[in-house]
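Run log // design_07
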């Protein structure tokens, strides 16, 4: 094999390895986000059905609001929204992992008591939090640092 062919093979092996490792990472993130999204969907669906058969739960909305605000203050996630998720992606700002349960339980509790809360924005914020936390962990740092010595012929 001549030098030019070896170089081309090494490059394509490197591309293949990079594609494989990031596909595995993306698949794992997709499974985690899918599971949490499914739990979120079923949670909101079930509490909405419960509220439909138990209308008295509506009177608990002020208490639910107090619990949600207290949880946000306790986890130091108050004031974080979709714009902060986008800023975290573009500017590398910090997102606390506790934003995920705060959004999840806050939205489910709001729907339980008859409050008005969107599902799409909450899902976006939860997915963004998961991605940010995964991409700032040692897993991705390890994936980025792997040298492809298997591609040397």
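design_07 sequence
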């Amino acid at each position: 094999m001549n030098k030019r062919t070896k170089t081309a093979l090494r490059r394509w092996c490197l591309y293949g390895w990079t594609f494989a490792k990031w596909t595995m990472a993306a698949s794992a993130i997709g499974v985690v986000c899918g599971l949490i999204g499914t739990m979120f969907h079923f949670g909101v669906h079930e509490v909405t059905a419960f509220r439909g058969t138990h209308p008295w739960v509506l009177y608990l909305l002020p208490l639910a609001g107090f619990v949600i605000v207290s949880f946000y203050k306790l986890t130091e996630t108050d004031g974080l929204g979709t714009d902060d998720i986008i800023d975290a992606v573009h500017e590398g700002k910090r997102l606390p992992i506790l934003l995920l349960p705060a959004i999840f339980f806050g939205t489910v509790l709001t729907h339980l008591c008859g409050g008005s809360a969107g599902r799409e924005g909450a899902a976006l914020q939860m997915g963004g939090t998961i991605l940010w936390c995964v991409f700032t962990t040692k897993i991705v740092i390890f994936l980025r640092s792997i040298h492809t010595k298997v591609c040397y012929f």
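Residues 76 and 150 are 45 Å apart (CA to CA).
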